[in-house]
Amino acid sequence: MGVLGLAPFLQKICPEAIKTLPNRLKSLSGKTVVIDGTLITQRLHFAPMPHPYRHVLGWYRIMQELKECDVNAICVFDGMERSHAKGRETA
């Protein structure tokens, strides 16, 4: 799902497209956001946290915060296999 180099490109070409949310999710109350589920899961899984189920705990905390702020979420996950188009990318 992620696009390599997208954030730096957007910051350079159209910086107004990237916003910092001072109140994080509260400013999105009543709205729906789309979350890259694969990316978030990988980041949570490899986080420097000693809990064996840190990815599950992380998702729970994210969903809890979304619910508290009245933000709906659509989580999109990559397919079962890595896309051939991403074959040349490195982490």
UniProtKB/TrEMBL annotation:
Any one Gene Ontology MF annotation carried by this entry is: nuclease activity
The record's listing under Pfam families reads: XPG_N (PF00752)
Annotated ranges, domain XPG N-terminal: 1-91
Please, which domain of life does this record's source organism belong to? Answer: Eukaryota
Write the protein's name: XPG N-terminal domain-containing protein
Native species of this protein? Grifola frondosa
**Record's Gene3D superfamilies?**
5'-nuclease
